Amino acid sequence: MSRFAGQWVWITGASAGIGKGLALALAAEGARLVLSGRNKAALDAVAADCSGSIVETFEATDLDALPAIVARVQGATGGVDWLINNAGISQRSLALDTQFEVYRTLMEVDFFAPLRLTQLVLPAMVARGSGRIINNASVAGKVGSPLRTGYCAAKHALIGWSDALRAETAQHGLKVHVLTPGFVATGIGANALRGDGSVKGAGDDPVDAGISIHEAAQQILDGIAADRPEIPVGRAGAAEMQLLDLKRQDPEACFALMAQMAPKRP
How many helices (H) does the chain have, and how many strands (E)? Predict the structure, then answer.
């Protein structure tokens, strides 16, 4: 019997990467989906493989448009059971080379956008006495990784907010899950921002050697089914996944290791 049959699940960033993997896996489990992102053609292609899904195209940072979008989705579904805040953008630039507006973009996309969407979906979940909020953070939300100062800041904020939200909403029957992916083979490296705001583009990036989006989705759904508040996602024993334990067990060693990994400049 399907674990998630009949659940209405809203996924942002559903056109590719982990969001696409989750959409396909949830559809196979009998969930009903709302697929969101900026690229309608790509969303439609995913929707074609997810029977009965709804496509809702929007820009995550258009915060003024979100109330009407949420009202439309709630009306179409009769109430969202899960919200998966998956849309995001990464960074590949040293702090010394990063313009302030790039930091602002990272915070808007990776923190304020999921916060605002959750804020609008939350009251109906509380009134119903059930619901799940799933926020896709990163190992970089736990560890200060070089070339990602803004990304780390946004993901640390997302995890802190999620932890506090979990504490507040448990009394209402809600579950809040945080995902901490390591390397997953998606376009996140190619789409990362450089210090001047340009897109990095395809090329050598460690995330490209990560697990597939389908493996990631399976790990995530198994964690949600087990009601795990925090769900690591990655290849067991991989170096980046070991950082989660190292940061807890020996933070000074973790800080030193990150300093060794930082690109050196004159």
Answer: 9, 7
